[in-house]
Amino acid sequence: MRLPARLALLSSMVALVPATAAPPVIPPPAPMVRAALYAPGRYAVDSEATKVHFHVKALVGGYEGDFLAPEGSVVIDAARPDRATVDIRFPVEKLTTSDASTDAMLKGDSFFDMGQYPTIRFTAKDAPLVGGDAPTPVAGELTMHGQTRPVTLSVRLVGTTPDEAPGLSVLHFTGTMTVERSHYGMGFGRPFVSDHVDLTIDAIFRRG
Fold this sequence. Notes:
The protein is mainly β. It has two helices and ten strands; from the N terminus they run αβββββαβββββ. The chain has a single domain, classed as Beta Barrel (Lipocalin), CATH 2.40.128. The chain has an eight-stranded antiparallel β-barrel with strand order 1-4-5-6-7-8-9-10. The radius of gyration is 31 Å and the shape is elongated. It comes from Sphingobium limneticum. Keywords: Signal.
């Protein structure tokens, strides 16, 4: 068979082979948008329902009491509904142990020095908002007795519930944290009174 004839035969055979369809183009998956657990906005602290309980061990027994009547807020940005900015302040004046002499000692110069440092403050700029029973670590800063230190608060977000007025809601969280008071210039009484202070927080914020 001559070469031109062979080329013609080869061309006709190729023409009979069915064309293979190009594979379909699969678009990349759309980014997952996490549903907001809590409505964006500013949640003001409920000063009557919120408190921090403290407990300090001592050689004999221990000391415990509450920080009451806080001010502050949790702010949730609509652009980042899974994060929040926290700023809450407790007046040392409202510290109570149910014993007047102990209250006076703690508010005095040896401990909180209320006259010079009247407020305890906790702030967090990028606090995660996560639901569920497992506690979530929240990194922030604690200012006490004129000293500001990084701390980690272990938080469990209880959730939100409808408020009396339409469109309002309640953000409720509990948390725990341990601090060393000597890091804040309050080492008086050691070693007879522990350096470790255990804090338990029960906080409610209302969106307005």
